[in-house]
Amino acid sequence: MIRFDAVTKRYGPRAAVDAVSLEVRARRICVLLGESGSGKSTLMRMVNRLVEPDSGRIMLDGRDIAGVPPEALRHGIGYVIQSVGLFPHWRVAQNVATVPRLLGWEDARVAARVDALLDLVGLPPDRFRDRLPHELSGGQAQRVGLARALAADPPVLLMDEPFSALDPGIRRELQGALRDIHAGTDKTILFVTHDVEEALLLADELAVMQDGRLIAHGRPGEVLARDAGPAVRHLFGEQTLAFHRLGTLPAAGAARPGEAAAAPLLPEGATLKQALMLMLEHGTDQLAMPGGGALHLSDILAAA
Amino acid sequence: MAEARSRLLTDAAATPSPAVAIPREATAAALLAALAAVLPFLLGWLSVAPNRLVSPRPVALPMAAAALPLGLFLLCCLGVALLARRRALLPWAEAVAGLALLALLATLGLGAGAALEGASRLARVAPGAGVWFSALALLLAGGCCAAGRGRMADATPTRFLAVALPGLALLVASGLLDPLSLLKEAAQRGPELRLALLRHAVLAAGALTLAAAVAVPLSLLALRRPRLEAALMTLANGLQVVPSIALFGLLMAPLAGLAAMWPPLRAAGIGGIGAAPAVIGIAAYLLLPLAAGMLAGLRQAPPELIDAARGQGMNERAILRHLRVPLGLGAMLGGLRVAAVQAVGLATLAALVGAGGLGAIVFQGIGQLAADLILLGVLPVVALSLCVDALLAAAQRLLMPPGTRA
Fold first, then answer.
1. Could B311 and A83 be called an inter-chain contact, meaning their C-beta atoms sit closer than 8 Å?
2. Distance between CA atoms of B286 and B342, rounded to whole angstroms?
3. The ABC transporter domain covers which part of the protein (chain A) (predicted)?
4. Which of A77, A81, A87 to mutate to test binding with chain B, by most B CBs within 10 Å of its CB?
5. Which of A279, A227, A278, A221 minimizes the C-alpha distance to A250?
6. Closest residue of A to B314, CA-based?
7. Chain B: nearest CA to A179, how far in angstroms?
């Protein structure tokens, strides 16, 4: 869906993005993870031409974006940023309707779309439609920001640290909401963050950047494999790498047949990390699997 | 002793004390109202001169003739002081200050009529120094009450003006103030005065339009070109330092030269003398407030907001229309307000290069040492500035989009 071909962007002598090639497949959430200054935001902002690459090519759905006028390109790409950037003098409904109005939709269609989107992001339209941005909490504002990005039903969403400024509880709520919305809408999402937990929670694919270069790319389990390079180990924490890796592995894959009588039951779809947490919680080394079968501590150690 | 004091303190605390509710501005307003009431008696109500060129002498106010408005005036001054003690009543205090001004003028008019009885037809009565100071004190008291409502943008004493201006028009129309020398002078020069006022307004408006025609497009261009911005602001700042009379003078020679070289210009009324150098000169001073206001306004929308707008596919024109202008309107209108008031003031000097306007009357008065004539030129200038300021302040309030006011 999105393909970067040896893309480079220089600011002065320093390369903010250095010959990055990356393919994001359709309907995936690809998380760009890196510390600040690693070039992840710059790479993302090249997709909607807010930043123009010095060399290299970016293909969107098979088309070179350099040939698409920036405004038209951006109408087809949702954009969510950390500061939300709602227009303070526009009501919520107007804010959500920004792109449909730029595209010249009819009023009735816009109004129906706005209500549907507010419902989708969990804000009852009757209560929120006519509010001004300063009357919203941080979490509500970012929900509106997400609705605005989805307004014209773009196939691609770019999200630049959208939840970083929120309180941890609100952040988890919105991460959950984003997963649900993604599951229901088939969007391709490029998501920038510096938060390791958030990246592992959301990512179908993980792309790790450092100093403008792409240093690892793949499914989270692959990126966190035992042979991960020193930069990845540093980013995820030398001591916690294995623990994070457990979070990427489904418990079902490590289970053995048989019964674990009187052992705590693991919820459906749990990861090995959750399984280990449950064992620690109950002080046991065995768990019962939801569909039958058992999981022993030694299975976890073997899988990790 | 200490016990008594502490009891006093607890008593004061126990009563549901109105002390908390007294606004800060109350003291100032009360003091000004007291000054307004006392000053005419201390510094004189009226002065009479045998004719318009002789210095006037103070005379006593004929109390019997003006008892009714005098009583009302003193009552109103007391009213201002008392009403200002409650924040909720401040608007009323402001309006009553306007009423006090009207009562002051009515007292003056009736008193002047009585003082002129039996005098020669050439005799002139003018307000005494006390009346001028009293009027100033009342205006300040009104301003105090207006400021007490809180925000700076609302500090124009609109209620004071709403009472005082129509009332003043009524007083003038009723002929109550006719005995005053200022009104006599005005009656004699009626058509001349109206023409000067109109010309003054045209000069100021013309200069404002010319300055806006330069400042607005240049500010829009300078928004993304730092070097143009530096040049524009250096020019606008530099012009402020040139004394206005020198600037008018500097413009005369090149404009005269242009008109000589290119006769159609002369036919259009452009030359070294007259409206052309005046309008250009005034406009030069308006560049700074206009350009500074424009640029500040255009930068009101924070960069993240512009980024969000761009990311959604708004082009620069849409960003200007939907974000920069509505969010920066307050600052832009603020600049326009400063420039408009400055234009009205500077247009007074246009008379120096033969452009006419109210300044012509002022300079004529200075030449003749006739104080009434000077006032006849100056008072409309003051009134015009106040009106322009109030009008643009109201526009500023009305046009600000709702989300930006909070």
1. no
2. 7
3. 2-236
4. A87
5. A221
6. A71
7. 22
Domain boundaries, chain B: 18-174, 191-401
> Residue A78: which H helix or E strand, with range?
strand A77-81
Q: Are residues A81 and A199 in the same domain?
A: yes
Count up the domains in chain A and report the number. Answer: 2
What's the pLDDT band for A144 if we cut at 50, 70, 90? very high
Which residue type sits at B136?
L
- What number is the ipTM of this complex? 0.87
| CATH superfamily, with its number, for domain B191-401 | MetI-like (1.10.3720.10)
DSSP string over A182-239: HHHH--EEEEEES-HHHHHHH-SEEEEEETTEEEEEE-HHHHTSTT--HHHHHHH-TT
Amino acid identity of residue B231, one-letter, is A
Extract the tokens encoding A37: 């200054």
> A81 vs B307: CB contact, 8 Å cut-off?
yes
Cβ-proximal residues to B163 (8 Å cutoff; 6+ apart), any chain: B95, B98, B99, B102
Residue A74, CA atoms < 13 Å, CB-side half-sphere: 25
Q: B18-174 adopts what CATH topology?
A: Butyryl-CoA Dehydrogenase, subunit A; domain 3 (1.20.140)
Max CA distance (Å), chain B: 93
In this predicted structure, the answer to whether residue B359 has a pLDDT above a threshold of 70 is yes
Q: What is the pLDDT of residues B318-339, one digit of tens each?
A: 999 999 999 999 899 999 999 9
pLDDT band at residue B340 using 50, 70 and 90 as cut-offs: very high
Which H or E run contains A244?
helix A241-248
Q: Examine the domain organization and report whether A265 and A141 are in the same domain.
A: no
**Residue A85: CB partners within 8 Å, gap ≥ 6?**
A145, B304, B305, B307, B308, B309
The answer to whether the Cβ–Cβ distance between B326 and A89 falls below 8 Å is yes
Q: What is the CATH number of the domain that holds A265?
A: 3.10.580.10
Host domain of residue A151? 2-237
Q: Which among A85, A90, A132 has CB closest to B307?
A: A85
Residue-wise pLDDT tens digits, B164-186: 889 988 988 888 888 888 888 88
